[in-house]
Input
Amino acid sequence: MSGVLLEEVTKRYGEVVGVRDLGLEVREGEFLTLLGPSGCGKTTTLRLIAGFLHPEQGRILVGGRDVTALPPQQRGIGMVFQDYVLFPHLTVEENIGFGLRERGAPRDEIRRRVREMLELVRLPEIGGRLPRELSGGQQQRVALARAVAYAPRLLLMDEPLGALDLKLREAMQIELHRIQRALGMTTIYVTHDQEEAFSLSDRIAVLEGGRLIQVGTPRELYRAPRNQFVAHFVGKINFLRGTVLDGVGPVASVKLEDGHQIRVRAPGPLRPGASVCVAVRPEALRVWAGAPEPQPEAVPGLNRLDGVLERVRYAGNFTHLFIRITENCTLLAEVGGERAELHTGEPVRAGWAPEDTLLWQEGDAS
Amino acid sequence: MTTRRRWGLAAVVVAIYAFLLAPFVVLALSSLSGGEAYYISFPPRGLSTRWYLAIPASYLRSFAVSVAIGVASALAAGLLGVAAALGIVRGRYRRKELLKAFFRAPLQIPLVVSGVVFLQFYYVLFGLTGVRLLESFTGLLLAHVFISLPFVVGTVCAVLEKFDRRLEEAAYSLGASRWTTFRRVTLPVIRPGVFAGMLYAFIVSFGNVPVSLFLVGPRLTTLPVDLFYSMEYDFNPSILALSTLVVVFSVLTILLLQRLMGMDVLVRAGAKE
Output
């Protein structure tokens, strides 16, 4: 039993709220990521769990035990920091063995375990070196080995890849995933990088302004974001505003600000005249040049908007198309491969299916 | 850089070194003078070590006192200074600058004044309690800690302000108590600053005349005070010889300490290969 439970946790810094009424469950063995922009409270949450901070209200349970009042030493955690924070005066071996030594493990046991950890992070040759003699990637792997060496119940990571360059970061994501799976340790991971969160996590908790907005698998967050913030933060998306014309039934009619009428999969009955925000992912858009054949109208129920192709951004395996619909509305479409028939400055038509549309009522708090 | 500017720079550097080293060169060469003259002869007349052989053994005692006081005040100032710096840097209160200024204060009082104040204080204390600090090791040590403490506080504050406190958090998370963390993580990391401060403390104590002057007596005196009186009342060139030896001793001590402080780094860098 080493899941984590946060119950209505609140932490303030003077007047500023770090996190507010945060309730969150992390299951045993799970890789959960706290995702959000800077200042959203994700690091505060991690530090509360670590015991470096103490909440004003609420309880924190690890493995069913209330640890709210315990110091970090007694929480059984392994912590990995953004810029490694290795002990500069100790060798790699001494760094990794630190937790074991503090727990009174016998010398042989420490040596065996340190070697095991170095194998795990694939750095068996560097035990005798000092941290400053290692590269950033190596340091972070040592930091990870140090955190997990004494087999803590819980692994906490605060933007551990933030200080590494892109290529290395991608390689380390794979490593991290492999190591976490190998150890089966409950892991809480903090990042502001959505792609990183997606590639690593079983579940993701999105935070904003010290509040938990949504918890779910990457797929759930992407397919069914609870609000516009989550939709915007998780992947790219096009937002359109409008009012409900007909809100009865599974597919609602919405009149956009520019007068176009579209059909949207409705989450529930909608009051006619209500202001709504609808959204569509760039990859759900299909794009035709000028006078399309077959006519999109021929595809039953497809929404369509006409515009001018403003910019083409070729990215190899996909292409981003920026389509200007009205003065203040540009749609982003992501289409596969190269679309040689589309030319900047020429009219195009964008279409998408009603079931690929997301909808939220304006002023909806949830 | 043009050759001309390079030469200009070199000239300035040489001038600075000459300025810094000139007194020592005069001292060392005069001490090697071969003449009979009982005064400072520079440039020396012939070279000889006769004045070195003529150094009275009585100086050995005051030298030992100076070393003992210097080491003791470095240790005491180190201990107090680290504690004070931790309080200043880590404490949660406003007006930290005030506290810093307080610990700097001994530097701003003229040393002679500090000496008189300690003398007066020891008189009063003796009158009130019968505890005799004048002309005692403890009395001298207290005064020397007073004047050398600012140096330790200064250097340790500087390293503590740069210290990454997450190192301590990492240690806590690995199960280390606060004391163990201080001993195994904080102290080793700030050690260069602590050593530098203690080295200053030793030098300040070892060379001090104005404060010691008031607190010593025939039964207990320090080397600099001893030299001071000799120069004033009983000059002979063997004092120059002794002074030269003291300078050499100080330089060697500093080199040795730097070597020792940097030792673990050297050993580990070597182990890598």
The radius of gyration of chain A is 25 Å. Chain A touches chain B at residues 50-52, 71-73, 75, 77-79, 81, 85, 87-89, 91, 98-99, 102-103, 128-130, 133, 146-147, 150, 156 (CB under 8 Å). Helices of chain A lie at 42-50, 92-102, 107-120, 136-148, 166-183, 194-200, 218-223, 228-233.
